[in-house]
Amino acid sequence: MAVSKRIVLRFPQRLVDRPIVYRLVKDFDLEFNILKASVTPDEEGLMVVELSGKQQDYDKGIKYLTTNGVKIQSLSQDVIRNEDRCTDCGACVTICPTHAFEVDPVSREVKFRNEKCVACGLCITACPPRAMEVHF
Ligand code: SF4
Ligand code: SF4
Q1: CA-to-CA distance for 56 and 35, rounded, in angstroms?
Q2: Which ligand is the nearest neighbour of the Cα of 123?
Q3: For 78-113, how does the pLDDT look when each residue is reduced to its tens digit (9 = 90+)?
Q4: For the whole model, what pTM was predicted?
Q5: What is the full DSSP assignment across 49-113?
Q6: Ligand 2 centroid, distance to 78 Cα (angstroms)
């Protein structure tokens, strides 16, 4: 059976330069489509990818990634902001790898663009009043 899934991969710093993606394609016969990629301020790599192939190859590929220290997250979860709690402090703005937060140049309000969010979870611990929430 063929599968195609969108997932978030988080690479620790030591893996950022390693040919992980190449190995997935070559050794596990998977198709790999990178939808977004960035490096967080603490040098962790983050990629949103679509991974397709036969179920057994997909499972082997995922096992290969996790045993090599790559963290995998499904995109089915959603991150939302509790507007009552947000104090517009701006702590989330630089930490978000996909630039889902924008500061209004006039009012200094921090706007959250949910459509840009890949649910990586980095803003959740970075937000002092815990305004960012993950929903499964
Ligand atoms: S979870 Fe937070 S830091 Fe991650 S992409 Fe979404 S808004 Fe940005
Ligand atoms: S870190 Fe939290 S409180 Fe600060 S601007 Fe971002 S969402 Fe609002």
Answers
A1: 23
A2: 1
A3: 789 999 999 999 999 999 988 899 999 999 999 999
A4: 0.60
A5: EEEEEEHHHHHHHHHHHHHTT-EEEETT-EEEE-TTT-----TTTTT-TT--EEE-TTT--EEE-
A6: 17
